[in-house]
Amino acid sequence: MFSSLRQRFHSRIRERSRRRARLVSKDGRCNIEFGNVEQSRFVFLIDIWTTILDLRWRYKMTIFISAFLGSWFLFGLLWYVVAYIHKDLPEFNPSRNHTPCVENINGLTSAFLFSLETQVTIGYGFRCVTEQCATAIFLLIFQSILGVVINSFMCGAILAKISRSKNRAKTITFSKNAVISKRGGKLCLLIRVANLRKSLLIGSHIYGKLLKTTITPEGETIILDQVNIEFVVDAGNENLFFISPLTIYHVIDKNSPFFHMAAETILQQDFELVVFLDGTVEATSATCQVRTSYIPEEVLWGYRFAPIVSKTKEGKYRVDFQNFSKTVAVETPHCAFCLYNEKEAKAKEKKGYDNPGFVLSEGSETSDTKM
Length: 371
Fold this sequence. Notes:
The protein is of the alpha+beta class.
């Protein structure tokens, strides 16, 4: 009992260590950290629009609320200073015929309220600017322009954040596991992908990258070396008709990095298969990229995906997502090398070969019968 618990504990630790080493998570986020960057952080302020869009919602809303409150309070102080310099406040006991720069500003609180009414164009009509002070008129114009800029920036950033294609990518899902089995007489690595919306992705293109650590003939160790993986469907890998779930596959031939792997050794390999799906959102014409990854434990050798599309009695096609990641065990060669050797042997048997050492000799027939 204790030995089994110990094995489970060590397997959990190994699994967690592999998860930490994953470069791309299942939902497409990249697990990478930049250190010792020589460039200053001010370069991110130069591209302030992208920086704001990349922020989380809580930080974005904190910045916007702080910008509004800060501008209201700053201009409230300026309006208070204008009233103080012009001696419009009650502590100066202005005469009855005194015309203030701003009507009904009695202190810092009323100055803050006037700043708020001015910037958001509420206009209650109780406090207003008179023609007595040119400074007040200039301050009113400047605050109005700044308020429009802040409102435009906030509305544009929120709209761009909501309409980003990253949110559309969340409705594209990949199967939990990749499988390896025969397809069309060839050994293939198969992955299932589905579009959860009825709207299509235009010009879809799917491809993959195999990330692994390699050592060059010169002895250089390359971490995260990238190898191209070609994925296709029966109609090709471009302009996919993405109306129903598709099963994409990679043919494991002699040029494939999976060619020298076997069912017994694939779990011992150290690689990460990253799959990308690029397309254009039909509703917004924005480009969209979806990505996921598979580690050796998530590649099932000798399985295929269960059927997912059926036809109802009413003539409609029904997609059962309960079987989306379900797999079924099938008979599969334990390595691609064995499959291709078997095919070559069968081809040689059918073709046949001449034996150059074989000579057909003809002899005269003799009869031992005597008359």
